[in-house]
Amino acid sequence: xxxxxxxxxxxxxxxxxxxxxxxxxxxxxxxxxxxxxxxxxxxxxxxxxxxxxxxxxxxxxxxxxxxx
Length: 68
Hints:
Helix content: 10-25%
Organism: Microtetraspora fusca
Pfam family, one: HATPase_c
InterPro entries: HATPase_C_sf (IPR036890), HATPase_dom (IPR003594), His_kinase_dom (IPR005467), Sensor_HK_TwoCompSys (IPR050482)
Order of helices and strands: EHEE
Protein name: ATP-binding protein
Oligomer: single chain
Strand order of the largest sheet: 1-3-2
Region (Disordered): 1-32
């Protein structure tokens, strides 16, 4: 988790099989759909970079909210 003084960000990267993000945008399972919905509810952004055979990088950022 990064983001001290700004929106927290949670980047993740792997060097696995990867996939074509455009092919799974509107279906293909619940994982990415659930992640998009959760981040959206927090007024955040979800960035997905992936390519078949080249792994995947996912970064979720949400606005920082002061406590109190």
